[in-house]
Structure to design on (462 residues):
């Protein structure tokens, strides 16, 4: 048994590589490492591990390991875990001196050599037939994370009305406050690729029950692909989870993560995947890489900005002249346009360079102001009292010309392509050579060993 205090992680530098199918090889490293966090589970631990080990041995086509993460248990759980590790091949145990499911997962996942990492609750409330569908997209390279969901239409769940209400309310809060699109944050049945965990886990601060939610929100905001598996799930009536305290901690976590995302303090750019594995980002002949995607994003942002500008102009025109209304509307919409294009069109995340980008955006704004003001001046010279609709038509034409120039300036000057400029110094800007919890990640290239199931289903003999 290995005894661990706190295991921090080394944050890998740079963006993530393109997704690839994990290679099959003859090396003996397990493909999948399943972690079971436990605290005072002396009664349930033995049957749980035996059932899980039998299922994997019979059905899983690759080498695997099971790691029992003992969260400072005070009963005989450590002795039960040690006995299971001695009796069952592929079963190991970690002893942590501090409680916290998030701390346990971070510690064991940080130390694991398996390219696919997973965890499940000790009560095995989730039907194990969902395990292979959970990890298959990670092995194939299709997805970065995978979660079981009790809240999809095809899920089959048996639990009380109270827990059902709390679960659905919590996920509605996530959707409303953090714009989460995954359906079930707290189902104890998840998996992640190790190369993703190397970069993602150092950004996750929580060490308790909110760990899952924070990990998923950050992954989703960074553009990682999360695969959902509908599960069959039966509630454990003997669960020791303190609902009120857990809900309070979760709400505090929602506030903390929401604030961090709003201020741009998280370096999510290190989690981005390179373009190329998405059909939408394939190169078009004679068009620079990424230009088609940026054009689409810029057009969407530009259309919304133009509408916003026209609404502002019409509002300001009620109490000031056309030139003043135009200048005020352009200034407000320009700040919003620069911020939207920075994040959505050119994929710049975090606060680094934000002030400089806005300053450059204001220069671009000044050019647009000159174009639109000049067009208004020409209109007023041609007609002493032009109709409001005529003003709007002239401004739309001038704005179209300014928009083309704005895109070219944004692409070439404000947000130039900096691919390949991310270096080791950038990787250390927030957490240094090690993550906030102190451990070092090793090499993530791990070959896989396909193995034959050691037992077959009796029905196959018929």
């Amino acid at each position: 048994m290995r005894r661990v205090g706190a295991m921090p992680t080394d944050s890998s530098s740079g963006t993530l590589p393109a997704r690839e199918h994990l290679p099959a090889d003859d090396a003996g490293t397990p493909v999948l490492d399943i972690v079971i966090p436990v605290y005072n589970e002396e009664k349930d631990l033995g049957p749980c591990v035996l059932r899980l080990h039998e299922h994997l041995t019979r059905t899983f086509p690759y080498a695997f390991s099971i790691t029992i993460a003992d969260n400072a248990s005070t009963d005989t759980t450590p002795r039960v875990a040690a006995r299971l590790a001695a009796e069952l091949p592929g079963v190991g145990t970690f002893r942590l001196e501090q409680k916290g499911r998030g701390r346990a997962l971070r510690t064991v996942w940080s130390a694991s050599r398996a390219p696919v990492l997973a965890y499940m609750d000790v009560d095995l409330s989730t039907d194990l037939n969902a395990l292979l569908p959970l990890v298959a997209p990670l092995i194939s390279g299709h997805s970065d994370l995978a979660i079981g969901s009790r809240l999809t239409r095809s899920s089959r769940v048996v639990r009380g009305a109270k827990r059902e209400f709390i679960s659905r309310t919590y996920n509605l809060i996530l959707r409303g406050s953090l714009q989460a699109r995954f359906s079930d944050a707290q189902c104890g049945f998840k998996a992640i690729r190790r190369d993703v965990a190397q970069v993602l886990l150092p950004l996750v601060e929580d060490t308790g029950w909110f760990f899952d939610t924070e990990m998923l929100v950050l992954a989703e905001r960074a553009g990682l692909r999360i695969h959902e598996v509908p599960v069959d799930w039966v509630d454990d009536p003997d669960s020791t989870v303190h609902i009120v305290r857990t809900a309070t901690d979760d709400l505090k976590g929602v506030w903390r993560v929401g604030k961090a995302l709003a201020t741009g303090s998280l370096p999510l750019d290190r989690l981005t995947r390179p373009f190329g594995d998405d059909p939408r980002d394939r190169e078009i002949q004679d068009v620079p890489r990424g230009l088609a995607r940026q054009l689409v994003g810029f057009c969407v942002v530009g259309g919304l900005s133009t509408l916003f500008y026209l609404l502002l102009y019409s509002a300001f025109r009620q109490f000031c002249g056309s030139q003043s209304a135009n200048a005020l509307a352009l200034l407000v919409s320009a700040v919003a346009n620069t911020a939207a294009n920075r994040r959505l069109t050119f994929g710049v995340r975090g606060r680094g360079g934000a002030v400089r980008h806005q300053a450059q955006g204001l220069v671009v704004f000044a050019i647009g102001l000159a174009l639109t003001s000049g067009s208004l001046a020409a209109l007023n010279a041609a007609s002493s009292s032009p109709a409001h609709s005529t003003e709007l038509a002239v401004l739309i034409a001038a704005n179209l010309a300014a928009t083309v120039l704005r895109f070219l300036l944004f692409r070439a000057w404000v947000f130039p392509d900096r691919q390949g400029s991310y270096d080791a110094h950038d990787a250390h800007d927030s957490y240094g050579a090690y993550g906030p919890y102190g451990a070092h990640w090793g090499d993530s290239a791990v070959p896989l060993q396909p193995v034959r199931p050691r037992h077959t289903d009796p029905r196959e003999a018929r």
